[in-house]
Amino acid sequence: MTNELTKEDYDRIDSYYSLVPHPEFPDEVEQMCVQLKTGPFEGTIIKYGKFQIAPPDEEGESNAKYEYDVVSVPPELQDVEHSDEEGVEFEYMIGEILVKLLWDRHIETLKEENKEIKTNDGIVGEDRETDTITFNTQ
């Protein structure tokens, strides 16, 4: 699935989740998790694991492979069967969240290093957000 993230997409994805401490390790910053705030899996907490990016293909798109663990499921969702469509929606949503988290970290690192932030349409300044982010998560 290819993601071309506009400012509206970025804001929409931001509404999908909250960063929360790992329920079993609340004091360990490196154990931060994602709690879903919307959809049929609302309240579910996941933790991303291994992550790998392949070199861009002929079209210039990068592929990513990632792992995640479901850390906590709300009691009201336990033993609930979800449709295949809901499962696909879940996978797509957590892929979009990961892209946003990676982009946020990249921007943070560039700002810390006082480097220019380049996007498809130019340079992002202090007062301007990116217009498009392209990333492929498969």
Describe the 3D structure.
Helices cover 27% and strands 30% of the residues. It has helices at 7-14, 84-112, and strands at 2-5, 17-20, 33-36, 45-53, 63-72, 117-119, 122-124, 133-137. The strands form two sheets. A six-stranded mixed beta sheet has the order 1-8-5-4-3-2. Strand 3 (33-36) and strand 4 (45-53) form a beta hairpin.
Beta-sheet strand percentage? Answer: 25-35%
Q: Which radius of gyration do the C-alpha atoms yield?
A: 16 Å
Structural class: alpha+beta
What is the CA–CA distance across the termini? 6 Å
Can you give keywords for this protein?
single chain; 138 residues; alpha+beta; six-stranded mixed β-sheet; two-stranded antiparallel ribbon; globular; disordered C terminus
Question: How are the SSEs ordered, and which strands pair?
Answer:
Elements: E1 2-5, H1 7-14, E2 17-20, E3 33-36, E4 45-53, E5 63-72, H2 84-112, E6 117-119, E7 122-124, E8 133-137
Parallel strand pairs: 5-8
Antiparallel strand pairs: 1-8, 2-3, 3-4, 4-5, 6-7
Give a brief outline of the structure.
This protein is an alpha+beta fold.
